[in-house]
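Here is a complete protein record:
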Amino acid sequence: MRFLLIRPIDESAALAKKLENTGHQTIIDPVLTIQSEAHNTINFSLYQALIFTSAAAIKIFTQTYDVLKLRTYTVGQKSAQEAKQHGFHDIISADGDVNKLAQLITSNANTSSGPLLYLSAADVAKDLNKLLEKKGFQIDRVIIYQAQAITELKKPTLLALKKHEIDFIPFYSSRSALIFKEMIRKSNMLESLNHVTALCLSANIEKTLVDLPWKNLMTAKKPKEDELFNLIGIDL
């Protein structure tokens, strides 16, 4: 099988390695680049716990700060694994959904134990602050990175699409799906998607892509990478 990987370079490279190790071919063409964002010094002693909703946020955080002993909440399995790899120990992970993360924090944290610190990108899919503030929590959000959109696909990617050399494109976020959609329209390459299956990590991503002329559009039952690739019989 032949895949186009559009996640930021580190995530795409890691996924490409897994796919190539199982005999598949990949093209990497990220639609987003990750850049650290300047922010004020953080007084971590004020907080009862940290919150991350992306593996990228954890990577950026550990480039600037030492790993802390604070409890760490993560949105899903991938971000939890990233936190563990960087030395975090007290990790509680949701099931890949911000709403479930809010419920998890509500069940495990105490509003009287101090505020929560949410370390995030500038653009987020859902307002976690609003969800938790409704439950009585004080949550401070610090933007530590920007995910900047690329304006066009690379020529080798467009050629591979034109020659029907891409079978699948996995989509991990609604924003990356929207950027890809804008670029494919700008390139007048919509018809090339007739030979491509879109793999969507969530129903919201599917909604973003449903109006494109895909060969097929498949959505994971749960927002997990293994569920996504199980759709096409690949065990990563």
User: Anything to note?
Assistant: The first helix runs from residue 9 to 21.
